[in-house]
Every structure is written in C-alpha cells, then in structure tokens.
C-alpha cells in the first residue's frame, strides 16, 4: 500500500513541477480517461445491471447501492446517503393504442404512457379525435368541440433551433401542460407526438404535471411515424376514432436516497465544489445518455484527480441525485439541507445532456466568473471545450442556486443526437460512444481542477 501511495505522489510531483504544470496534468487526465475508459466501464455496469431506475423502483434501489459501492471502491474519503421521499409511479403492463377507421380497420400505433399518467379504465377507452398543434391551440378551443374526445397534440420538435436543448424547451410544453389544459375543456384523454428529433417510430415518454384545477386524464406519447399515420388518417376521415389503454398505478411515496461521495479538501474542507447528475432514469431503455452518462462523468471526473495524486484545496463532492425525472425531490432536498446547514458551495456543476462530444460549459454566476472560465479555454484540448456561455445550470442544482445563490455550471455536449434517444427504448449502453463519453469525463475533471487550484 505504501508503495502505491508513493507512486501516486511521485506521479503528481512530476505532473505539477515547473512551468506548464497545469497543461501536463490536464494532458494526463485526458490520456488516462481514454486509455483506461473507466467511465465507460462503469456505465456498462450501471445500465446493464440496473436499466430501469425510475424513482421508487427496485432498479433505483439497486442503483443507489451501486453508486455507493462504486465510490467506496474508488477510494473516496467519504461516501454517504441522503434520504429523500420520492413518488412511486409504476407503468404496469404494456400500453396499447390503435386507430379505428372504417376503411382500414384497426391499426396499431407505437405508444408509451407519459410519466405520472393515470390509467384508463381496465377495458381501455375509445373516442373520436380533436387535433391541435400545441397548448395554445387547446386553450383557445371551444369546450363543446373538445368534450368527450381524445386530444391529439400534433406539433413536431422544431428544427429551427441549432441548439436542440432550446428546441426541447419549446416542444415539451404540450407534454407537461397539455393533458390538464385538454381536461379543462372536457377531453377524456391525450396523445402527443413524441418530443424527439428522430423520425423513427420509437415513442418517447417523460413526465406530465397535473394542474390542481383540472381533472386528471390519461396521457400517452406516440412514435413519430405513428403520429404521422394518425394525422393522415384523421385528415382523410375526421370521424376516425382512437383506442387507448394505459395500466399505470400510483403507490404511496417511498424512501430513497441521493448518493454523495467526497474527497476532503486539504486547506478548506468546509468549502465545496459539487458535481453531479441524476441516478434515476425512465423505465424504458437503460438510461444510458439520460443520465447514466452524467453519473459516470461526475464520479470519474473526481476519481481521475485522485488517481493522478492531486490533493484538492477544497472538498470535491459528487452528488448522484434521485428523482430528477418525475419530481426533482432529490435536488430540492439537497438544497434544503445545504441551506439548513449553511454549507459553503463554491460552485455546483451538472452534467445531464448525454455522453456526446463536449462542446462547452454554461455558467450562471458573476461576470468575473464568466470571464475566468473564458480565460481557461486554452487549457482544453482541441475538439473539446470551445465555448463558455453566459447562462447555465441544471434541474438538480437549480434549487441550490435559487436558495443560496450558488454559481451553477452545466456541461454542454454536442446536442444534435441527444433527443433521438431521450426517454425512449433507444437510450441504451450501445448508443454511447466510448471516446465521446471519456472526453466529457476529462473535460469535467479539468474544469474541477482549474476551479479548485486557481480559485473561482
């Protein structure tokens, strides 16, 4: 053991000695990430052992144990659990949906219930369609035209946004708010065209939010091609009907956990640089890009520094948040505890945009912090981080930013393919490129090192 410690210390001395010490350490981080591909190997473990990790599920429970054991094995100074009550929604048996037309009979459609959706009656329900593009359209519709029908939100993901995250923000409103707005007009159910950039027939799920002043009605997403077929059938014959059967159930809240690992700061242990993603994932696919990639990014970004022999000035904290997908309770609980205990966060960093090639970081902080990050761009290798944006953060670290004013940073990978996989059965380990994933890990590790060693 002493030989190992001496070897690690000797490596670090070599890396940081003399001029160019930052460049040498950063070069080492990128090379080690690619050569050892530890993040990729961890992602394989997480996604294949615990593919369905929705909060409250056995998969989520297993993932908590996995994250705790993984950080202990990697030699983190502290690893502990932070309890949080989470919602417990279960999809149940496979949904079914088909259109009924006089000429073509029953045509099955690719479908997934939206997260939190209530069930249909056990026998399913059948109703005519009321077709709109987006939420604003249903708000303007006459209740007598909508009552007793299934509302079909047909708007596609907008292609005009070069940054697809911006397109998602515009497209997701029909999924989140559409069901309640339709219910206010008397609709019996909702189906939406999936929020995806892909043109295949995989349905993409995601959470909805039921309004307190509206009935709760069943809601589901259709694959892009199925949505096309439904729309064309309705155009040809507005009297077509749709059958929908959803088998979901809601159980009482369940205890779960954020998983936290730390390397204790050598000079300022009370000051924290936090980095994390969300451990939970939807109950379809394997949650590889969303957000298994963010979890292994975060764990290995800190572990790489430890393996290089780096002793952090401040405490480096990895947070594996629970329940981002359908409640955000992990992020809210983390912020509440941090505020109650007056924890000193220098910054919080989130990675929740997939395991694609890293392109930049976004920061919500002071002008001087923004400029400092821009000054660091030259430290990052070519073909990785090229941009620092004013404005960043993430769902899980947002509550901390709101409660305590903590500066927050988001990793920005290339976004063009992310929503091809997002919240669907396509989001599996094989969809993640090893080299791209490891570039993200090393980029995060570099940023953490620069913040810790040069101040923020």
Automatic annotation (TrEMBL):
Cited Pfam families: Peptidase_M28
Subunit record text: Homodimer. The monomeric form is inactive while the homodimer is active.
KW Ribosomal protein (keyword) present: no
Keyword annotations: Carboxypeptidase, Endoplasmic reticulum, Glycoprotein, Golgi apparatus, Hydrolase, Lysosome, Metal-binding, Metalloprotease, Protease, Secreted, Signal, Zinc, Zymogen
Keyword Nucleus tagged: no
Domain Peptidase M28: 258-437
InterPro entries per UniProt: CPQ, Peptidase_M28
GO cellular component labels: extracellular region; lysosome
Protein name: Carboxypeptidase Q
Domain of life: Bacteria
GO terms, molecular function: carboxypeptidase activity; metal ion binding; metallodipeptidase activity
Subcellular location field: Endoplasmic reticulum; Golgi apparatus; Lysosome; Secreted
GO annotation, biological process: proteolysis
Organism: Caldithrix abyssi
């Amino acid at each position: 053991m002493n030989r190992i410690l001496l070897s690690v210390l000797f490596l670090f001395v070599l890396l940081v000695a003399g001029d160019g010490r930052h460049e040498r350490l950063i070069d080492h981080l990128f090379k080690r990430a690619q050569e050892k591909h530890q993040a990729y190997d961890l992602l394989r473990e997480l996604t294949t052992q615990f593919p369905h990790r929705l909060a409250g599920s056995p998969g989520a429970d297993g993932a908590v144990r996995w994250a705790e054991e993984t950080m202990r094995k990697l030699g983190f100074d502290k690893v502990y659990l932070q309890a949080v009550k989470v919602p417990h929604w279960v999809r149940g048996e496979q949904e079914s949906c088909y259109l009924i037309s006089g000429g073509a009979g029953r045509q099955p459609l690719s479908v997934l219930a939206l997260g939190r959706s209530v069930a249909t009656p056990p026998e399913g329900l059948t109703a005519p369609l009321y077709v709109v593009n987006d939420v604003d359209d249903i708000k303007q519709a006459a209740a007598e035209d909508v009552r007793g029908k299934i509302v079909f939100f047909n708007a596609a993901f907008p292609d005009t946004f070069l940054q697809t995250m911006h397109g998602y923000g515009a497209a997701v409103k029909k999924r989140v708010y559409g069901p309640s707005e339709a219910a206010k007009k008397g609709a019996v159910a909702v189906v939406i065209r999936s929020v995806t950039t892909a043109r295949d027939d995989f349905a993409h799920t995601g959470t909805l939010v039921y309004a307190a002043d509206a009935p709760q009605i069943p809601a589901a997403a259709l694959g892009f091609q199925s949505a096309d077929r439904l729309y064309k059938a309705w155009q040809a014959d507005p009297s077509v009907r749709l059958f929908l059967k959803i088998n979901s159930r809601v159980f009482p809240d369940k205890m779960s956990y954020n998983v936290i690992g730390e390397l204790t700061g050598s000079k300022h242990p009370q000051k924290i640089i936090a980095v994390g993603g969300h451990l939970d994932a939807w109950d379809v696919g394997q949650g590889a890009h969303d957000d298994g990639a963010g979890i292994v990014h975060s764990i290995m970004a800190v572990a790489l520094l430890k393996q290089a022999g780096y002793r952090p000035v401040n405490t480096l904290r990895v947070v594996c948040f629970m329940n981002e997908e359908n409640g955000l309770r992990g992020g809210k609980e983390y912020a509440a505890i941090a505020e109650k205990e007056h924890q000193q966060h220098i910054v919080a960093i989130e990675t929740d945009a997939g395991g694609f090639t890293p392109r930049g970081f976004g920061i919500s902080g002071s002008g001087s912090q923004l400029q400092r990050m821009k000054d660091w761009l030259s430290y990052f290798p070519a073909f990785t981080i090229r941009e620092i944006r004013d404005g960043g953060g993430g769902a899980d670290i947002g509550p901390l930013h709101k409660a305590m004013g903590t500066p927050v940073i988001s990793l920005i990978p290339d976004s063009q393919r992310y929503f091809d996989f997002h919240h669907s059965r396509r989001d599996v380990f094989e969809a993640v490129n090893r080299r791209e994933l490891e570039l993200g890990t090393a980029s995060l590790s570099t940023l953490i090192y620069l913040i810790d060693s040069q101040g923020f």
